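2024-03-11 09:14:02 DEBUG pipeline.ingest accepted 1 chain
2024-03-11 09:14:02 DEBUG pipeline.ingest length=224
2024-03-11 09:14:03 DEBUG pipeline.predict start
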Amino acid sequence: MPTETFFNLPKEKRELIISAAMQEFAQANYNTASINQICKQSKIPKGSFYQYFSDKLDLYVYIMTLAIETKIKFFASALNELPTLPLSEQIRILFLKGVEFAKAHPLYSALGEQFSKEDYEPAKSAVIKEGDKESESFFLHMIQKAKDKGEIDRNVDSLAFSLLLQSMNTTINQYMLQQFGDASYERHEQDIRQFVDSLLVIIFNGVGSRKNKSPVEEHYEKQT
């Protein structure tokens, strides 16, 4: 986390540093990203940088966490408009909203796409750890509401289910990278729709052989 000195800076100065860092990390992987370039773009001496952040990793995790928080707020706002939808459909909408988020916040989208290709494990693990903290409470709230409405069994382990839902994002990114070489929600919207639907059928209906289709399967077939 940034130091108190950073938070004591004028808002305009903080935002300039954040913007410069986002631009740099959106176009370069962790090891290639330059602190010198960030300092140059934000017009601060390099010595001042280390008064604000302990090192590059500290800044990187902070910047990526800001992006995650913004995305979660965007999703929460969208779901607040659709409180009566079943949990499976809310989750489906979350991932489709990823396309809308990418269009509304292209810099955050670029950060996410660059992160999906990040190969420096210490940086990637640190961001995932912080991101999981942010998204876990979000999904736990959704799950509890679904339990209260009787949509899912109250005996379902909420934390385990939350972790499974969080893992969907990683699974989708891996699929997009393998299929297309990038994880752009905007460029591959239709493929994401189909892949999300297939994952939701597995999560909510299992993989056992059944003669009759479940209501969730029938719903998704009508959507495609």
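2024-03-11 09:14:41 DEBUG pipeline.report The radius of gyration is 20 Å.
2024-03-11 09:14:41 DEBUG pipeline.predict end
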